[in-house]
Specification:
Length: about 425
């Protein structure tokens, strides 16, 4: 018993010593961690490499709270028609820089590496910071140079005429003593996006073969999906769009031998599309025709049927320095029986409540009354356990809540990658 107490005390001291050592250093601020009179910058970005940015831009003070900042920077990202990304940087001055607002963009081509994109985004941030840094004594420590590689602009001739092609394959396997699974996903994406037109063609093929041992017997099941989708959209002004979505598919999971569907639609955006990186309020309505042929007789005694369906979607998106909101409400029904309908609400909200305190809420809730393709025969135990076929349900709910509170020093300039960049964790 005595030895056990000695061991526990030794372990306690061993674990406590690093924490006490770190605490003793708190009052010793590294001389290069704070820059006197430098711009206090808050960066609002979901996919930024902050360690890289801090190293490449050492002439500002990075703060953790937007209320402590003299300059608020928000980055947003949109996919381009070529398969690349468009990054927008919104600079908004606060405190002594109030009223100084600017917007810059960086276009990342689809063949650019992650390191090249990271470098390009960071350079654009540097360029945007110059007008603010120039109003502080720190400007003396910053050098601006030209690499001398500029060439006379020439007209670019696109031999592909804005068409972009993407091929992808994802084989995957898993093996256990009682379960073996092989899955394969192949896809082809073709798109053309211009200010006036948006054309997207996508083909997906998914195959899963599952072999499992249960009660001394071996069972083998397969799931197969083939789907070809096409979307064509025409821009009409800065608020309206018209288009059509069509689909041909087959799915063993959904008991669908053949599904052919086409749905013309119209969309109105309350805000101009040019402001989509800040906010959107879109109303999308479509009405279309579907032809179904089923593998097995459905619960409604159908082996094939023709249906007319309508859909309405309302989507609201906003991203500001107080947080972001993404909410979507979608409803649909079949005309032959209005009780066959579906209503789904999904959303994600992230709000900075007060200094250091933020709240995030995300979730999805759906009322489901339109499962017309369900197999009439009773599902087997394997179908239920391995989710080999679609099962009847009247609703689905998922979601969560996150609360974050941060306090302490407002500055966050130092980079220390030792033992990794994540939180301290050895045990799971």
């Amino acid at each position: 018993m005595l030895n056990r107490k000695i061991i526990l005390k030794t372990l306690f001291i061993f674990c406590l010593f690093p924490a006490l050592s770190a605490y003793s250093q708190i009052i010793e601020t590294p001389p290069d961690s704070l820059r006197k009179n430098a711009v206090r910058l808050f960066i609002d970005c979901n996919y930024c490499d902050m360690n890289y940015i801090r190293k490449e831009i050492p002439f500002v003070n990075y703060v953790r709270d937007v209320n402590e900042a003299q300059l608020y920077l928000m980055e947003t990202m949109e996919n381009t028609g070529s398969g690349g990304q468009k990054y927008s940087f919104f600079f908004q001055g606060q405190d002594k820089f109030a009223g100084m607002i600017d917007t810059l963009t960086y276009m990342a081509p689809p063949d650019e590496t992650r390191d090249q994109t990271r470098n390009g985004r960071t350079k654009m941030i540097q360029m945007g910071l110059m007008r603010y840094v120039a109003k502080t004594p720190i400007y003396q420590e910053v050098q601006i140079r030209h690499n001398g590689n500029s060439e006379i602009e020439e007209e670019v001739i696109d031999k592909w005429n804005n068409w972009v092609y993407e091929l992808e394959t994802r084989p995957r396997f898993e093996s256990q003593e009682t379960l073996k699974e092989l899955s394969m996903r192949n896809s082809i994406n073709i798109n053309k996006i211009t200010p006036k037109w948006k054309v997207e063609i996508q083909f997906d093929q998914m195959y899963t073969r599952t072999k499992y041992n249960y009660d001394g017997e071996t069972f083998t099941n397969e799931k197969n999906l083939l789907k070809l989708e096409n979307l064509v959209v025409k821009s009409i002004g800065n608020h309206w769009s018209i288009g059509s979505r069509s689909e041909i598919s087959t799915s063993t999971f959904s008991n669908t031998k053949v599904n052919v569907a086409v749905m013309p639609s119209i969309e109105y955006n309350l805000f101009p599309y040019s402001e989509s990186t800040h906010h959107q309020m879109r109303f999308l309505y479509g009405i279309g025709f579907s032809h179904f042929q089923y593998n097995d007789t459905t619960v409604y005694n159908k082996i094939r049927e023709n249906l007319v369906q309508q859909k309405l979607q309302i989507a609201y998106q906003v991203q500001e320095k107080w947080g972001s909101v993404n909410v979507s409400l979608e409803g649909s029904n079949y005309f032959h029986d209005l009780t066959k309908n579906n209503l789904e609400l999904s959303g994600m909200i992230n709000i900075r409540i007060v200094k250091g305190l933020s709240l995030s809420v995300f979730g999805n809730i759906a009322r489901i009354h339109d499962q017309l393709s369900l197999v009439r025969a009773e599902a087997s135990e394997a179908d239920i356990l391995l989710q080999l076929s679609e099962l009847a349900t009247a609703y689905s709910v998922d979601g969560g809540v996150g609360i974050t509170y941060t306090f302490g020093s407002i500055y966050n300039n130092v980079v220390n990658p030792r033992f990794g960049n994540g939180r301290f964790r050895f045990f799971r």
